[in-house]
Amino acid sequence: PSTLWGRQQRNLMRRLRFWTNLLLFTLPLLLLLIGATNYIRHIANFLTLGKRLGYLVSVIATEQAGQAVTVGNVAIRGDFWNRDAENSIVLSHITLSDKQKPQSLLGRAEEVTLDYKLNQFFDDPATLRPVLNQITVRNPELNLSRDAKGQLNLLPMLQNLLGGKPKSKRTGVSRVVVEGGTLNYKDAKLPH
Fold first, then answer.
1. What whole-number distance in Å separates Cα of residue 176 and Cα of residue 179?
2. How many CA atoms lie less than 13 Å away from 19 in the CB half-sphere?
């Protein structure tokens, strides 16, 4: 009888040891896996929250252009772990309007795609390799007008963007593609 009781105790202790070890080692790994998955999901959600990024890009573009720029959505696509992979930033629902007269639309574009490779950002500027491979503008509409004094409405913005000397000989983009656009021109100097 005592050996039977001893054998049952040993079996019980083995089972208890097995379940204790399983819980002590598996539970923390499971919790770590759940936490890592939630963290990666959080980072991915941040990168795909285009409206938040669109607002940030709008603020920066408005400051650079000197005109009111609105970007509706931003999507970042590509492989961020491989420096040689083709990546793109897609800006959609872009509008450009006069800062003094926000109701005056200067232009709009359905979508602008910036194609790049990560290693181009880290290159030595002496290599003269462009920062962006290509900019593709889809379905833009530009409202160009000249007032009675001969001043173009986009001239102040272009002077603001292009003013000053470039800091290096490295170009910003190697190719610009415009797909299906419209140019509306109004000239106050010409007789109607």
1. 10
2. 5
Res. 112 pLDDT band, cuts 50 70 90: very high
Alpha helices in the chain (DSSP H): 2-48, 50-65, 118-122, 155-162
Distance CA 81, CA 146 (A): 48
pLDDT digits over 31-52, tens only?
Answer: 999 999 888 888 777 666 677 7
Question: In sequence order, what are the beta bridge partners of 111?
Answer: 92, 138
Quick check: helix, strand or coil at residue 156? helix
Please give the single-letter amino acid code of residue 94.
Answer: I
pLDDT band at 82 (very low <50, low <70, confident <90, very high): confident
CB 75 within 8 Å of CB 67: no
Structure tokens given for 140: 């833009």
**What would you measure as the largest C-alpha separation in the chain, in angstroms?**
119
